Amino acid sequence: MSKEKTKTFHVPNTFIILMGLILIIGILTYFIPAGTYDRYYDEVTGREIVDPNSFHEVEKNPMTIVQYFTSAVDGFVEAGYVVALTFAVGGGFYVLEKAGIITGAISSLARKLKNRGIIIIPILMTAFALCDCFVGMCELTMVYVPIILPLMLAMGFDSMTAAATALIGSQVGFTLALANPFTTIIGQKIAGLPLMSGWQYRLIMMICFLTVAIIFVCRYAKKVQKDPLSSPMYEIDQETRKDIDSTTLDTAKLNGRQKAAGVVAILLFALMVYGVIGMGWDMPQIGGTFVAIGILGGIIAGLSGDDICGAFVHGSMNVLEGALIIGVSRGIAVIMDNAMITDTIVYALSVVLQSVPAALSAIGMVVAQTIIEFFISSGSGQAVATMPIMAPLADLIGLSRQIAVMACQFGDGLTNILYPVSGYFIATLGLAKVPYEKWVKFFFPFLCVEWVMTIIFMLIAQAINWT
Q1: How far is Cα 259 from Cα 227, in angstroms, rounded to an integer?
Q2: Would you say 431 and 90 are in contact if contact means Cβ atoms under 8 Å apart?
Q3: Residue 272 predicted with pLDDT over 90
Q4: CA–CA separation, 156 and 118 (whole Å)
Q5: How many whole angstroms separate alpha carbon 222 and alpha carbon 189?
Q6: What's the pTM value of the predicted model, to 2 decimals?
Q7: Phi, psi at residue 35, to the nearest 5°?
Q8: pLDDT of 296-307, one tens digit each?
Q9: What are the tens digits of pLDDT across the range 407-460?
Q10: How far apart are CA 431 and CA 145, in angstroms?
């Protein structure tokens, strides 16, 4: 009797967690008053801006039982472009894999980095951070992972290393951005600050955060390389290795047609980056680029039409779970918007902030923005919704508006790769085949370090009256 089986805690399936969250939010719609801010079009930012003095309550519209079960379906409609982009990336890259292009390219790179593979992690994380520092397209992590996953596995690391390299590198650049158009630029425009002002302090913070992030990921990668069984992804990665045929990496070589297809794929990718930066391309154009990469790359490499279609479908199936999670998670926002409680939560947090002790007001603002991030997962959406309130509130409680903008950046960016309502994050995990619960166990200790660093830097900013 004394040797009965010990019950261990089992993390529920991600879908159970999400539907449970929707239910909790739905119940709260019966208790949280419905309310809204008036909005007006701002020609400077080109967006609908909140009037901070206009909050008023409206008639309640709590969630019904029908809305609970339709929230996931509505979420798919709301997140349509993110879901479509997930399928496009998964399908396009699998066509290149089917054609042997990725295996051959990774084989060549793995041979060159065989004895110094760890240096690829700081190089890639720095590149991803710089990209999001100026471009702010964290959705590109869905592009990075299919490229670097075979390379990481070939060098003796695991899929968690691949996901962490892309997600954490991107997170640091997006959060501490000098000129992220979706957070820094919009936030400073709304706050009436000179664009890119305060970049010196942001740069110092980004260097510190990125250094700590690189050390964290490299230490983990070295541990896995030394003892593969220590990886929480060991069993899953065995199947992933079969899918990408990593056993042939030592001998795989590219023929002429495969090289030509690879060059075309790289040119299309470069066109996509230019389109995002210079022509305002968004998810439809990015997704279309990967459809083109799959079709043209497959044709040039010598695949038949049937082979290309079959590979694209197979690649889309590989990311199906991630796409489903994206749609279900967006259901939370659907319920809140229908019940009109999002603005109420923002207003309530702004009221609470006014009672926070002056010495902790900067930290309080970060905490408030972190809570809001769960309900408004878009960086630009959060800036537009909160900065018209937080900027004048900063004046009221004795903070500089620069600190208010930074609080928005920290509140939005740090939990972008923790909250399951973040569509691109869940999609990236799906592409890397990393279960959400395993990611949380891996990432949360580092997030705690980031929070400590945030508190320190925000207190310094408040002490020096950073403007």
Answers
A1: 35
A2: yes
A3: no
A4: 10
A5: 43
A6: 0.72
A7: -160, 165
A8: 989 998 889 899
A9: 989 998 899 899 887 878 888 898 888 998 899 999 999 999 999 999 999 999
A10: 7
**Would the CA dihedral through 304, 306, 307, 313 be positive or negative?**
positive
Cβ count within 10 A of residue 316: 18
pLDDT score for 44: 64
Q: Over the Cα atoms of the chain, what is R_g? A: 23
Mean pLDDT of 271-294: 81
How many whole angstroms separate alpha carbon 120 and alpha carbon 108?
14
CA distances (Å), 287 to each of 290, 300, 431, in order? Answer: 5, 20, 15
Note the pLDDT tens digit of each residue in 173-218: 999 988 776 788 778 887 888 877 888 999 999 999 999 999 999 9
Kindly tell me the sign of the dihedral angle through the C-alpha atoms of 10, 15, 18, 23.
negative
Does pLDDT of 103 surpass 70?
Answer: no
User: Which tokens hold the place of 413?
Assistant: 């960016």
Strand 35-36 and strand 47-50: pairing?
Answer: unpaired
Three-state SS string over the chain comes to CCCCCCCCCCCCCHHHHHHHHHHHHHHHCCCCCCEECCEEEECCCCEEEECCCCCEECCCCCCCHHHHHHHHHHHHHHCHHHHHHHHHHHHHHHHHHHCCHHHHHHHHHHHHCCCCHHHHHHHHHHHHHHHHHHCCCHHHHHHHHHHHHHHHHHCCCCHHHHHHHHHHHHHHHHHCCCCCCCCHHHHHHHHCCCCCCCHHHHHHHHHHHHHHHHHHHHHHHHHHHHCHHHCCCHHHHHHHHHHHCHHHCCCCCCCHHHHHHHHHHHHHHHHHHHHHHHCCCCHHHHHHHHHHHHHHHHHHHCCCHHHHHHHHHHHHHHCHHHHHHHHHHHHHHHHHHHHCCHHHHHHHHHHHHCCCCHHHHHHHHHHHHHHHHHHCCCHHHHHHHHHHHHHHHHHHHCCCHHHHHHHHHHHHHHHHHCCCCCHHHHHHHHHHCCCHHHHHHHHHHHHHHHHHHHHHHHHHHHHCCCC
Q: Residue 407 and residue 391: Cα distance in Å, rounded?
A: 11
